[in-house]
Specification:
203 residues; alpha+beta; Inorganic Pyrophosphatase; globular
């Protein structure tokens, strides 16, 4: 009996070892680090690919959606060019928030997400965009094509979460949510992050 193709004898790195998605930049893979039930900020360890505890959240707000990143993307020169107020990209894979009707309460899962928009954020002078997508074939969101079509309260929750999730009492805030943008701009950001990845890590 042969092994399936592709077959990984060892676990692939979720950033570098997974495919970007079935139809990028329109439909991408999302590797989920945080769920809407997490009061701990988790993120993938860049060296090992395992999930690392970054910090307990200091505020009481929960992530309003699944939150992770798009494999084989990188936020560097091309992404920062799309952000006139940024000094550079943040040097991380491109973040993505994914909406789903059914609660998904575990991280370290891979899913297909259809890109519908994004949130333009600046973190300590660096471009830190958050792409917004919907779970592909989701029974509630399957007809949504642009972020303007989802309830405004969901967008406000996303804006509020990212404006406050790094707040530390007694320190000055250096994070700003600049704007919310639609599908076409989001596809442009994903393409730029794909090209930045090729520039820095190869195809």
């Amino acid at each position: 009996m042969g092994f399936p193709n592709p077959f990984y004898r060892w676990r692939p790195h979720p950033w570098h070892g997974l495919e970007i998605g079935p139809e990028p930049p329109r439909i991408v893979h999302a590797f989920i680090e945080i769920t809407p039930f997490d009061l701990i900020k988790y993120e993938v360890d860049k060296a090992t690919g395992y999930i690392r505890v970054d910090r307990p959240q200091r505020t009481s707000s929960l992530p309003p959606s699944l939150y992770g990143f798009i494999p084989r993307t990188f936020c560097a020169e091309r992404v920062s060019t799309l952000s006139p107020t940024a000094k550079k990209g943040d040097g991380d894979p491109l973040d993505i928030c994914v909406l789903s009707e059914r609660p998904i309460n575990r991280g370290e899962v891979i899913l297909n997400a259809r890109v519908i928009g994004g949130i333009h954020m600046i973190d300590h002078g660096e471009a830190d965009d958050k792409i917004v997508g919907v779970l592909q074939n989701d029974p509630l969101w399957h007809n949504v094509t642009d972020i303007s079509e989802i309830p405004e309260i969901l967008v406000e929750r996303l804006r509020h979460y990212f404006a406050t999730y790094k707040l530390i009492p007694g320190t000055q805030k250096d994070v700003s949510v600049e704007s919310v943008y639609g599908r076409e701009r989001a596809l442009e950001v994903v393409r730029a992050a794909m090209d930045d990845y090729v520039d820095h890590y190869g195809g």
